[in-house]
Specification:
4 strands, 5 helices, four-stranded antiparallel β-sheet, Beta-Lactamase, single chain, alpha+beta
């Protein structure tokens, strides 16, 4: 025997309202995220890294500029030896910002964008400095900034000093 049409409709409406209520409750519990929380270097951390990189280069007799940028590529700290060439300031900032922008060290970018490679055109983009000496700074696996050194005899030497700057703050970054 078939049930009356009104009973079937009531049961259907009841089931539909349960599904709707469950969906509404689920949506109310997990609203879409509209903000992102991210780690950023403090100016104090940037100054500590700059000083350590500068001291590393100075101990080797190099006259350099050292820059640290935040995760967006904005300058946080800069230190220039009074005998370093004026070109070293924008170059150190550019190396740090390039490392952050491409999320890789500039020595790696330099080797992967050599003339004749498919990525060679990257070197022609505005504000890209594809020379060794720019290194990303990471904390707990997240990119938080970049450090750039310019003025040592070659990108490899710049990078050694940059890594000394990161080493000076890396333990503290990983603990926070």
């Amino acid at each position: 025997m078939r049930e009356p049409r009104s009973a079937a409709l009531r049961r259907g409406w009841f089931a539909a309202s349960l599904v709707f209520a469950a969906a509404s409750t689920s949506a109310a519990q997990t609203p879409p995220r509209l903000l992102v929380t991210q780690a950023n270097l403090t100016p104090a951390a940037a100054m500590q890294a700059v000083q350590a990189a500068f001291d590393s280069c100075s101990s080797k007799g190099y006259t350099v500029s050292v820059a640290v940028v935040d995760r967006g590529g904005t300058l946080l700290a800069l230190l220039r030896d009074n005998l370093a060439g004026t070109h070293t300031v924008p170059t150190s900032i550019g190396k740090a910002a390039t490392a952050v922008s491409f999320r890789i060290d500039t020595s790696e970018l330099a080797s992967s964008t050599q003339p004749g490679t498919a990525a060679a055109g990257i070197r022609q983009l505005a504000n890209v400095v594809a020379i060794g000496g720019g290194v990303v700074i990471r904390a707990k696996g997240s990119l938080v900034g970049g450090i750039g050194v310019s003025g040592a005899p070659g990108g490899d030497a710049d990078e050694v000093c940059a890594r000394a700057g990161i080493a000076a703050i890396s333990d503290a970054l990983e603990l926070e």
